[in-house]
Amino acid sequence: MVHSRCFSESSATFTSIPILDFSQTRSPETKSTFLACLRDALVNVGFFYLQNAPIAPLVQHAFTVKALELFQLPLEKKLEIEMVNSPHFLGYSRLGAEITALKPDHREQFDFATELPAPGPDEPLYRNIVGPNQWPDETATPGFRQATERYLSEAGDLTESFTKLIAEALDLPPTALDEAFDRPQQHKLKLIKYPPPPEPSEESSGFQGVGPHKDSGFLTFLLQATPHRGLEVQNKAGTWIPAPPLPGTFVVNIGRALEALTGGICTATTHRVSLREEDFQDVDGQSLGPRFSFPVFQGVSPDLSSARISLVIPDHIRRLVKDEKVKSDAEATFNTMFRGSIGEGTLVARVTSHQDVGQRWYPDVLAKALQGQRDFQSQ
Ligand SMILES: O=C(O)CCC(=O)C(=O)O
Ligand SMILES: [Fe+2]
């Protein structure tokens, strides 16, 4: 079985991904069941499917249509908003431009975010992970910006409801995590296209959609917009568990910021997208075309550090956490970097993923990050 409704407790060596139903949060009788399932997913799995999320299907649909149109623009139009122009890591990344776990990802993507101004010159460098978007030419994609901002705004409201639910699932007051966020808070929306993998060959073997990684933010809300399989989640025994798209659901997962804030009680789980030829075909062997997925990464205040946050998590919740170390901890080199401020850790993660942006805007940070990676590997 690939996934399960939350009937019983999972363990850190989960073999299925729980399904939570957001509509249960609306009545006091069912909310406690929801919170129990959420608690289990937070401490053991780090991933769950969410049904009945309050993002209107029409808003999802309008955004998806516009997102697919955006990918159809000619390359020169996309390059007008190439990410390398932006010190805020927003804009277009060509196929293969992003690196995860030391290898290029076989995907093309656009990064957008809640529209906010760039930081002032006196603010810390890492605050530049927040800043204004590069929007595509409105005449080339009429209505794109509006549909995207609408979607991101509804997703932003959902992140706020979830922040309260997570606090409650940890038996904390609903507002306990509020201090982790800026007002307004910037969230990121990534539009991703994974073209079908090249014919298997010597060079293409080991092609990755996106390599094993943990997300940097608080929570991620992922819309799998096509029926392809490929997303996989690693349990603490190191086994990869598939997370295929379930119609009408989002895949929600915990990022490093939430893990750091809760001192590791909530677990940020490693995941990847594999590109297998068979995942790009339907049951009759017909091509499904490219895979599209749209994650929203819930941001936190870049100034936040685990040293500054005073969360006292009750003992009975702490006791739920089994002290199992994952056997292969992807990108473990980032672990120590999240001990400073989250903004600093995130900037290091970004320059390592987008080295062209790093080279242009943050050459010193990039040099240090690459040295850190080399030192880690030679240990
Ligand atoms: O495409 C997906 O399904 C997952 C993408 C992902 O994990 C990421 O971009 O962080
Ligand atoms: Fe991810």
TrEMBL record:
Pfam families: 2OG-FeII_Oxy (PF03171), DIOX_N (PF14226). Residues 180-300 form the Fe2OG dioxygenase domain. Keywords: Iron, Metal-binding, Oxidoreductase. The keyword Protein transport does not apply. One of its GO terms (molecular function) is oxidoreductase activity. It comes from the Eukaryota. Transmembrane segments: none annotated. Belongs to the iron/ascorbate-dependent oxidoreductase family. This is Fe2OG dioxygenase domain-containing protein.
